[in-house]
Amino acid sequence: MINKNKAAISYFIADLHLTQNRPDISACFFRFLETDAIKAEKLYILGDLFEAWVGDDDDSPYLRDVAQALSKLSETGTDIYYIHGNRDFLIGTRYAKQASMTLLPEVDTIDLYGQHVVIMHGDTLCTRDVAYQAFRKKSRSWWWQGIVKSLPLFIRKKMAADYRKRSAEATAMKSQEIMDVTKTEVIKCLELYQSQLLIHGHTHRPAVHDIKANGKKAQRIVLGDWYEQGAWLKATPDSIELLNKPLQHS
Length: 250
Known about the structure:
Blueprint: E1 7-13, H1 23-35, E2 40-45, H2 61-75, E3 79-82, H3 93-98, E4 102-103, E5 107-112, E6 115-120, H4 130-139, H5 142-149, H6 153-173, H7 176-179, H8 183-192, E7 197-200, E8 207-213, E9 216-222, E10 229-235, E11 240-246
Parallel strand pairs: 1-2, 2-3, 3-4, 6-7, 7-9
Antiparallel strand pairs: 1-10, 5-6, 8-9, 10-11
């Protein structure tokens, strides 16, 4: 039975990097859907729900379980929205439908209880990471994605594993400053969309930053990753706060 009598609550999550190899994160995510998100009217997933995504034709039981959990939440009346991350930008309409998620553009604006808010994954804000931005531009092109999707599934899985390894090695060599957002890019984004609040993930540095944009006070809220804890942003008409919950290790 669909229950549209949800509380005026919206949740925002990002950077869960779900993988079968981290059952503790998966368990925390499923608990979050069943105990917290089920009370909310909206759930926004701002990218990197998965550690990697090689195509909607990957029909593994684990991915089906995640889709089923999200679809079950949707059936209770919670609307689920998704913005692609840098790890799962190949998620397509097939899986989105299976998980009952609405795919959003890489930058979107929403009305959050009367406040005009910009939401995004956040990787486009890290303009000082020139090597990554070059790869991002190539990997979002229709021709690159067409070539990759035409490869057999087992080759795509190997490519994803190789990329994750190279990415980890490259990240270890980069400074924290390079991997963080460029402040002028944040201001430009807020001013482009005439907003005083930006919510994003990607950098794994949960915090509320007070800044100035459009000649007024503004804020940038960074969502936490789920490597060591569950992390989400809870928004109501009266408050907005970053919350976290410890993972339960077996």
